[in-house]
């Protein structure tokens, strides 16, 4: 999130870990934009303490993006500005995704594919999460959001791969977002099917930061990533761990 308050610190840490695969988390909602608010009149909150911050009403904004050319131009400008800000860090761009999976919006996806190509982007998260794989770990009801996103995610993966970009065969993190605990993460790793799998989490040492999602178990997700049990599951499964650049190195 190149417009976030901790972006500079994150970049500094990434530079100290050159083997870490880092990507751009495009943000078109619920955070501060890279461009000045006056350049994005339809994308930002107008009044109050959050004035200038990107809007969070995704459905209403999504309709405006689909139907108004002026709003689309603002979206494209902010997306390009975020790619430029990432490029300015000097970090290699391993992959791209979007906050709250907003790149499921076909118009936003089109902009990412078109603009991202100018910056060497070659991999995009496509949130296809097979329920059968989750249920091998624990009984899990189908999340309502999955019913809405599944067809869009499938269409997204077809478009991404047709453009020659990389997309994982499956992505885990949607159903258990904010609650990817050690038993869940270790269970997923132990039962990974063949192919490319992306697992995303939201680790943090505390939940008391600006923008924290209510109810997220950030500390539990951090503990899962540091867990010897999860590490052992990786070795037992002989899984290759890395980023998208490790799938098909340039």
Automatic annotation (TrEMBL):
SUPFAM superfamilies assigned:
Glycoside hydrolase/deacetylase (SSF88713)
Query: Could you confirm whether the keyword Magnesium appears in this record?
Result: yes
Superkingdom of source: Bacteria
What InterPro entries does the annotation carry?
Answer: Glyco_hydro/deAcase_b/a-brl, Hopanoid_biosynth-assoc_HpnK, YdjC-like
- Pfam families xrefs: YdjC (PF04794)
GO biological process annotation, one example: carbohydrate metabolic process
Task: Give the record's keywords alphabetically.
Answer: Carbohydrate metabolism, Hydrolase, Magnesium, Metal-binding
The Swiss-Prot or TrEMBL record lists the needed cofactor(s) as: Mg(2+)
GO MF terms listed in the record are:
deacetylase activity; hydrolase activity; metal ion binding
What protein name does the entry list? Answer: Hopanoid biosynthesis associated protein HpnK
The beginning of the lineage is: Bacteria, Pseudomonadati, Pseudomonadota, Alphaproteobacteria, Hyphomicrobiales
